[in-house]
Amino acid sequence: MLKPLFEPCIPTHGNKVPNGADWIHEIKHDGYRLIIQREGKRVRLYTRNGNDWSDRYPMITEAALRNRVSWFVIDGEAVLLGVDGRSDFNGLHSRKHNEKVQFYAFDVLSLEGEDLRPFPLHIRKVKLARLLARRVHGIFLSDFEQGEIGPDLFRQACMMGLEGMVSKRRDRPYRGGRSPHWIKVKNRTHHSIDRVKEAFS
Q1: Residue 145 per-residue DSSP state
Q2: pLDDT tens track of the chain, all 201 residues?
Q3: Considering only the top CATH level, what class is 31-141?
Q4: CA 201 to CA 186: how far, in whole Å?
């Protein structure tokens, strides 16, 4: 099995959402982390642990192939949306709805052969938005906010029953492995907390 060339950046768990001007805040979707690598007419989907899921989610693969750019690497979350518009992890995990799984992209690591990881996050966000400017069903640009709105946005996410938030320093490059510049704060009432408890019980 071919191993991915791009190791994912992993957020550090936190108890408090940063509120400084240098932070970008993203809603955490309850799904599977994936890195999409497109090379011409070939698309690979890699999990956080390097497993090749290229044949699992056809909607994501087809959306990547419909993009006008033929060489890119994007980072994001594979999500199954329920009837209420929120992510349905149990349905995703069941693998009964693989054909309906979509991708929320939050970073671009490479574009037309250029390694973008050394660039600061806010520059990568601009390049990602341009890459996904023509909306194609199956891959979506993940929304984000910036600055001191973070704690208020987190409270709203919790009220809506969402999993939580990931806050990232806007001026930092992308580096594989655990990063102190990506902070994940979870909604303590979200059912994903129970999955974590079960995993360590």
Answers
A1: E
A2: 445 679 999 999 999 999 889 999 999 888 999 999 999 999 999 999 899 999 999 999 999 999 999 999 999 999 998 877 788 889 999 999 999 999 999 999 999 999 999 999 999 999 999 999 988 889 999 999 998 899 999 999 888 888 899 999 999 999 999 999 999 999 887 555 444 333 322
A3: alpha beta
A4: 19
Residue of 3, 16, 28, 168 with catalytic role: 28
Place of tokens 């580096």: 175
43, β-bridge pairs:
38
Q: What residue segments make up the domains of the chain, in order of their start?
A: 10-29+144-201, 31-141
Question: How many Cβ atoms are within 10 Å of 67's Cβ, its own excluded?
Answer: 17
- How far is it, in rounded angstroms, from Cα 77 to Cα 104? 5
Widest CA span in the chain: 47
Q: Is the pTM of this model over 0.85?
A: yes
Give the CA radius of gyration of the chain: 16
Helices (H), 44-115: 58-66, 89-94
Question: Is 28 among the catalytic positions?
Answer: yes
Answer CATH for 10-29+144-201 from 3.30.1490.70, 1.25.40.10, 1.10.10.60, 3.90.1170.20 = 3.30.1490.70
